Hints:
By secondary structure, this protein is mainly beta. It contains one helix and five strands; from the N terminus they run H-E-E-E-E-E. Helix content is about 10%, strand content about 55%.
Amino acid sequence: MRAIHGIALLLVLGLFPVSARADAKSGFGFFLAGGDLVSKDSDTEEEFANATYGGGFDYQLALGKSFSLGAAIAEVTGDASFPTLPGVGLHKISTQQLEARIWFGPVLAGYHVGS
Length: 115
């Protein structure tokens, strides 16, 4: 099922005009995130999947036509319902990231570190 969503996303993004695609420009951005968080009970080895959602801000500094540095701060949250832990009801994850990007037109190769 996830593969179908990924293929559909690639097809939709491929329909946008070239001006809407990314490149090595300086500026601020906003992004949305979502997915599944799978937790495991260490006593029973039972896994629990919970939907997550969130967003963040980033800044990209262009250092030429084909190289840029970026920094991002994001927060993801979601419902964390565990039958074995009735007091747990919500999880929250915050991340900070730094990334170096080499651009090949609208496509990039990057290396990032974060917490």
